[in-house]
Amino acid sequence: MKSTIIPITPRYAETDQMGVVHHANYLIYLELGRMSWLDTLGFSYDEMEKNGVLLPVYNIDITYRKPIRLNDEIFVKTTIKNIPTTRVEFYYEIIDQNDVLHASANLTLVFTDANSFRPRKPIPEFLEACKKLF
């Protein structure tokens, strides 16, 4: 399981007057995909934070290819790119039911100590679970 796929149906509040999903909502869709990926691996942000680890965004790069519209059925595919170090990198594809690519994204999170806010290694259990994917 290097990838997970979740369905999403955009809601009215996520669109503009033309019925097109506002670009900022793509970040929410990516986060939903990432949370599902973590759940499938057996982890959560909450669990990481209880272990003194924060995961702020270091970098995000989104390419918008085709607008998503109100009530489109879309799917967010979330993939871990490599074995985490002090960073974990994800690749995303947002596709529709016809496999048309609407957006792609690369996102990097940094494992950060909750007290010092300094980069740190991931918790050992998370790292071991990720290594098994490769």
Describe the structure.
This protein has 134 residues and is an alpha+beta fold. The chain has one domain (3-131): Thiol Ester Dehydrase, Chain A, CATH 3.10.129. 23% of the residues lie in helices and 34% in strands. It has helices at residues 25-41, 45-50, 124-131, and strands spanning 3-8, 53-54, 57-64, 74-80, 87-96, 101-110, 112-113. Strands 1-4-5-6-3 form a five-stranded antiparallel sheet, with helices on one face. Strands 2-7 form a two-stranded antiparallel sheet. A hairpin with a 6-residue loop joins strand 4 (74-80) and strand 5 (87-96). The N and C termini lie close together (9 Å).
Taking all Cα atoms into account, the compactness measure Rg is: 16 Å
Mean pLDDT: 96
What count of helical segments does DSSP give? Answer: 3
CATH architecture: Roll
- The coarse overall form would be elongated
Give the low-confidence spans: none
Order of helices and strands: EHHEEEEEEH
Number of strand elements: 7
Q: Could you name the CATH topology?
A: Thiol Ester Dehydrase, Chain A
Structural class: alpha+beta
